[in-house]
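Bug report

Summary: structure tokens for LiaF transmembrane domain-containing protein differ between web form and batch submission.
Environment: batch mode, default settings.
Steps: 1) Submit the sequence below via batch. 2) Compare with the web form result.

Sequence submitted:
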Amino acid sequence: MKMNRHKGLAVLLIFFGGLILLNKLGVHTGHLFGHIAGWLFPAAMVGLGYLGLVNGRRTIGWVLIVIGGLILLGKLSGLIGIAIAVGLIVFGISMLRNRSFL
């Protein structure tokens, strides 16, 4: 049996669907799956929005991309805050080294 891209995606969808079903039935698969599932839905929305754009459904495509992107932005807010803090520290150190900055 030859494996192509569509079969791999199908196996991945079956795997995640099975994990979601087990979780809903009370068989807890651990904290890692809960964390992954929280990212899976907004990422799927962005992916489906992209497919909508490619297939000519511009309105629904952009709506899904914007909503999924906003959800992902909320999930990434902690990492964005850390990146801003590191950037401020690096910028402050560079200002101390180069006194004629301002």
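Above is the batch result. After comparison, the two runs are identical; trailing whitespace caused the diff. The two ends are 67 Å apart (CA to CA). The helical segments are 5-24, 31-54, 58-75, 77-97.
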